[in-house]
Design brief:
The structure is a single chain. The chain is an alpha+beta fold. It has two domains: 2-75, Glutaredoxin; 85-191, Up-down Bundle (Glutathione S-transferase Yfyf (Class Pi), Chain A, domain 2). It is built from seven helices and four strands. It has helices at 11-23, 42-47, 67-75, 85-115, 125-142, 155-164, 178-191; strands at 2-6, 27-31, 55-58, 63-65. It has a four-stranded mixed sheet, with helices on one face. 37% of the residues are buried.
Length: 194
């Protein structure tokens, strides 16, 4: 049993929740409203000095943060981490890419447009350019295969689907990327989200 601290509007938090749910792990959920600054509150920082969600406190008192680290820890030994060494490295490649090239464009634009209500004229146009580039990269990869790494659902798919499935909230119409749209449906089906 562990406690997952997160904000349910955050794809980074949801991907950890989805891994736990998919694997049938027992956990408690504590809502942390990041817009209200709850992750920067002194009591939260005392447990989680990074001041970010998702974060987990385990029953033995240890704590861990960062969504992809949490997914990998929870999924250790499961089919969500490919047994084949190359497929496992490919999964990690896509998880690193997600945090560097995908999330900083698609999730940030979504947050500014959908949650902060900023008009397009007040949002950095580079976010759109970078978001299109990320989705183009995904489309190219998924045109040749059903999953990002290995022969089935992995942490790479869960990590990438979190913000891709709501990319329209940031102004990215997935109709432009049919292979991505089909993959989103596959991942949602595998996770029971559809």
């Amino acid at each position: 049993m562990f406690t997952l601290f997160g904000d349910k509007v955050s794809g980074n938090c949801l991907k950890v929740k989805w891994v736990a749910d998919h694997l049938g792990l027992a956990y408690g959920w504590v809502d942390v409203d990041v817009v209200k600054g709850e992750a920067k509150a002194p009591d939260f920082l005392a447990k989680f000095p990074m001041g970010q969600v998702p974060a987990v406190e385990f029953s033995d008192g240890r704590s861990l943060a960062q969504s992809n680290a949490l997914m990998l820890h929870l999924a250790d030994g499961s089919a969500l981490i490919p047994a084949d060494g190359f497929a496992r490295a490919e999964m990690l490649q896509w998880l690193f890419w997600e945090q560097y090239s995908h999330e900083p464009a698609i999730a940030v634009r979504r947050f500014q447009k959908f949650y902060l209500g900023k008009p397009d004229s007040e949002i950095d146009p580079a976010l759109t350019t970078k978001g299109h580039a990320a989705l183009n990269q995904m489309e190219q990869h998924l045109a040749k295969r059903d999953w990002f790494a290995g022969a089935g659902l992995s942490c790479a798919d869960i990590g990438l689907v979190a913000y891709t499935r709501v990319a329209h909230e940031g102004g990215f119409d997935l109709a432009e990327w049919p292979a991505v749209r089909g993959w989103v449906a596959r991942v949602e089906g595998a996770l029971g989200l559809a």
